[in-house]
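ok so I'm stuck.
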Amino acid sequence: MTAAQRRVPHASDLTHAVQDALASSSYRPPVLPSVALDVMALAGQRDVDLAEVVKLLERDPVLAARVLALAQSAQYARRSPVVTLKQAAVRLGLEALTHLVLQAALALRIFRVPGFEAFAARVNQHATATAHVTRDVCRRAGIPGEHAFTAGLLHDIGLSSALLLVTERTEWRRLRFEEIAPVLDAVHADVSGLLARRWKLPEPLPTILASHHRASLDGVAHPVNAALIVAEQLCWEAGAGILEPPAGATATTAALPEQPMDGLDATWPSVVKEALGIVRLDGDALCAARVAAFDVVGSLGAGAAPG
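replied:
not stuck anymore, here's the structure
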């Protein structure tokens, strides 16, 4: 079957169709496991007993198993293995455990798109790396980072969710990834914000996710947005971007390569430079952040190519 016979819609027409589908009252976005949402809500309260979090996780054995597997990864593991949820809770603490629960839930429900497994895996790795690096950039820049890790983890959920919507529609199911990519690029930030609101996540998370390619909103600098943009740049250089990394990029490279603007999930070079100015990372400070980003990506392993 040729492209003409398949009647491939123009990218702008498909984008409008997807936007209309997302805005429809009949749209049912992917949901996180209820246990994950309960854990996040509990973590937002004062004086939380870790035993309560463990009890919640035990209600979902699949999610609990995924959390344990992540707790034993290079990012969290210590010398002795973590074999129970209680050990993970005590060793990691509430904040890190909550991050693991969210990371596990996304891997199980959101970053899974039948027929596009390699791309979904790439988004998953990119999200995880960006979460760690965004938190690191906030720390280096002295930016309050309460939402840094979660924002990094969730910022591109719109990519997988919009792709899932396309694959579920009969009239779009035969489209190739190259035909869908421009649509994902156009809608994914709005979809990320939409999902955050549907999941009742607190502000400023929905706003950050919906505007994560902008360092300023209405002329006002947004430091966490800026940190996220810098983190995406560094993760791309280190090989954990949605796009393939720039040729010859290393942890000790001093230059700031520009993302190709015809690619998926790219950020304008001027916006990256604006973000660097907001977080005040340049020279040696930027080089140190880059080395740390390469270390994070190395501990997570190489990503799969989109497609």
